[in-house]
Amino acid sequence: MKKESRFKQILILFLTFLKVGAFTFGGGYAMIPIIQREVVEKRKWADNNDILEILAISESTPGPISVNAATYIGFRVAGFWGSFFATLGLVLPSFVIIFVISFFYKTFMTWTVVQAAFKGLSIGVIILLFMAVGKLKKAVPDTWLSIVLFTLTLVGMLVLNIFGWTFPGATLVFIGLGLIVGLIATLITRKEKKK
């Protein structure tokens, strides 16, 4: 690969994730549909199955899911420097915005227009999340396992959020349950294939 084309790839990675970071509100999960559109539909750096795997890896490693996804995609496309500049592009807009707002945060948050904007953005984030689930759902086969896992995850999240339950190690418990269910499902699938 020529240095020019490698430089161009890294620049495109940086600009792509700079756009994702600049125009997404609501945190890592809200960035998923934008990342999916940019990476899968526009740039063709991955397909929907790859995005599901990237999200699984990003969710199971420390750090925000969007940063982990940017780092992984950047590395996949252009190695170390690709991951570095994709991650930098993603976090740079948030850093600059937070840095500027920090100088006049108290005054800024007392404005009713700003409070209303944040309420509107929270609704927009929920819609973005539903859109991401809808797009990624197409890549997941409709099997009893995927339906059971989706239902259990949804019920677990609702119960924890509605009742405000928190406990140390909740993430480890859910990872452990996911591993157990995954192992059982793999064993059952292998037995069915042998028949």
Description:
The protein is 83% helix and 0% strand. It starts with a helix and ends with a helix. With 195 residues, the chain is mainly alpha-helical.
Q: What structural class do you assign from the helix and strand content?
A: mainly alpha
User: What's the end-to-end separation, in Å?
Assistant: 48 Å
Strand content: under 5%
Overall helicity: over 70%
Backbone shape: globular
What is the overall pLDDT average?
A: 80
Order of helices and strands: HHHHHHHH
Please count the helical segments.
8
Describe the main β-sheet briefly. none
Cα Rg: 20 Å
* Poorly predicted ranges: none
Labels describing this entry:
mainly alpha; 195 residues
Give the topology, please.
Blueprint: H1 3-22, H2 28-42, H3 48-60, H4 65-101, H5 105-110, H6 112-137, H7 144-163, H8 170-194
Helix pairs in contact: 1-2, 1-4, 2-4, 2-6, 3-4
Brief rundown of the structure:
With 195 residues, the chain is an all-alpha fold. The protein has 8 helices and no strands.
